[in-house]
Amino acid sequence: MTNSIWVPLLLTFLAGISTVLGAFIFLLIKDFKKSYLSFFLGISAGAMIYISFMELLPKSIQTIGYAPSNIGFFLGILFIGIIDMLIPHHFMKYCSRNGVKYDKMMVTGLVVAIGIAIHNFPEGIAVFMSSLGNMKFGLLIAFATAIHNIPEGVAVATPVYCATKNKKSTLLYSFLAGIAEPIGAIIAYAILQPYLSFTILAYIFAFVAGIMVYISIDELLPTCFEHCQGHTAIAGIVLGMISMAFSLYFL
Known about the structure:
This protein is an all-alpha fold. It has one domain (3-250). It contains ten helices and no strands. Helix 5 (105-133) crosses helix 8. The model is unreliable at 91-103 (pLDDT under 50).
């Protein structure tokens, strides 16, 4: 590994282990309200959609053209869609610590953690490869992914803590779910490193945009508007877009 990959790898690692931050928040806040979850998911969805259509896809089109970029974009959607169909992860079904009783809670926690870990593989590739091609994009995608991973940490922590009442175990499972992102990045780099070029990176930008749009539409936006949290979700979405707009202007 050369020094040039260490910063992208660090960004991928920090974005991934934001699941641990989500677990911390769950453990510290006794009454983790649904509105908090809607707001966090809204920020992530707004950020991901904005940077996908305002930066990643246009940058790809500028480099390799309209048709190839759109092919890469829809291949990204197809890729993450297939993963989602083969390994569904309905981890966003939030439940309060005291309001819902689980059957086989520890098994539920394990299944959720494994599902999130598998889905975090392509997210890790997205953060790392984008950072490798354009550090500004990498920073912004890492931020959006980190915000997205906070509620994932809550989703893992909820059943594990309910089953074990053990904070260390709760944090460990959240960490294992998140560490899949840098692992995915390392595997992708090992495979693609001999072929990397500006053209390949442009395809990767389009591919990453497809992944993030799918995640936003399939996971984040539907959950944002559950439980009558519409205005909170919209506030989060707009804030996520504004944060990306300001970041793109000043970075």
